[in-house]
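Quick sanity check, Protein-serine/threonine kinase:
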Amino acid sequence: MASRPMVLDSRLIRVLCPLKRQSRQLATATSKIPQSRPWSHPPASVNIDNDQVARLASQPLHPLTLADLVRHGRPPLSAETLFSSANFTLSLLPIRLAHRIQALRNLPFIVVSNPHISRIYNNYIHSLSTLLPYQERRITNLEDEIQFTEVMADLVQTHSNTIPILARGFLECRKYISAADVTRFLDEHLRARIGTRLIAEQHIALHLSSQPHCGRDSRYQQDGCSSCIGVIDTALRPAEIIRHCESFVSEICELKYGVRPTVVINGQPDTTLAHVPTHLEYILTELLKNAFRATVESGKEREPIEVTIAASPDPPSSPLAEMKTVLLPTEQETSGPILPDSCIPGVTIRIRDRGGGISPETLPNIWAYSFTTFGDDEVLDVSNNGNADALNAISGAGGDSSSLAGLGYGLPLGRAYAEHFGGGVQVQSLWGWGTDVYLKLRGLGRI
C-alpha cells in the first residue's frame, strides 16, 4: 500500500513551532559546553564516557621503538615476563585509541558522518571500551592474561581493514574536505595505526610463542625462526625479502603485460638487521611494483631493475654495545643475548629502474594520499571493484588488501612504515631516463 503524504494542520503547527524555538535555544545554550555535544560525532554502538576519552587523549603518546618491542626477551617467556608484556601493552593502547577517537571527532561533521569513516570511528570506540575494564587492575594471573590476549586478537581483527575503508570514505568526501587536510589527517592517523597494531600483535606473538601448543601459529611466529622475538626478526635478511617480493610482483606483471623485467641484487646481499618482516615486505612490494610498471610501460623491459643493498657502518659513538644490556633488563630469563653480534644499526636499499622517470608535474604530488595517475572514472571503478589494475593488486602489511588498488596510498604508506622506526624513503628522478629510490632502514635501538 502506498504511503500517504503527511499533512500538518494549523493546530499541530502551533504546537510544533514553540518546540522548535525551545530546541534552538537549548542547542545554543549547550553548544557552549564542550562535553555536552553528542552531535559533534556519529552515534556510537557502545556507550563510553566522553570525559574518560578526553582524559586519556590528553596524555602524551609514548614514542614506540623496536627496543620497546623486544624488551621482554626471547620467547618462551616466563609467566611473570608475559604479565609484564601484557601490562606494558595495556599502558599504551588505551591512550593511543583515545587520541584517534579525538582526531576523528575533530573532522568536519559531514565527513565523519560518512558511513565508511563513521564505521572506523565506531571500531575505535568498540576497541577502547573492551580495554577500559582492564585499566582498573594489573594483569597478574594467567586467566586474565589469556582473556586480555583474546581482546588484543579482537582489536587486530576489528581494525584489519582500516586503511581501505578510510580510503573509500575520503574519496566520497573529497567535495567537503581539502586534499591537504586529508593528507595531514591520514599521515598522522596511519602512522599512529602502525604503532597501535604492532603493539597488539607483538603481545599476541609473545603469548603464542610462549605456549608449546600454539607456537606454530604462522601469523606471528615462523617455524624454526630462532632469531624471531614476536613479530621482530633480529637477523632479517633484506635480500630474501626482495626476492620474495620480486617473485610476487613479477607474476602479476606478467599477468597484465605479458613480460617480466629481471631484478639484479648487488652490494652486500648477506646483510642482516633487526626489523619487522611484514613492514619491509609491504614497502619493497610497493617500490618494486612502481619500478616494474614504469619499466614495462616505457618499453624498457629488457633493462634489469637494479637493487643495491648497503649496510650502514657503525658510527664512532655507536650505542650497540650498550644496547645489549639496556634492552635486556631480565637477561637471566632468556637463553642468550637478544642481538646477534653481526647486527648492524641500519641498511640502505637503492632500487634503480630505467622507466623514464617521473614527470615534473607528477613529482611534487607523489607523497599525497589519494593522489593517483588514474582518471576520476577509473578511480571510482577501483573504489567499487578494487581490481582495475592487476599490478596494483598487492597484499599489504597488516591486512590492507588489493582494495587499495589505484587509490594513491601505496607510496606514502610505504614511507610511513619506513619512517616509523627512524628510516625513510627518498626518490631521485631523472625525467626521460629513470628513477632511483633510496629506502633507509634503522635497525634495533632507541631511535
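Posting the structure with no commentary besides this: DSSP finds 14 helices and eight strands in the chain.
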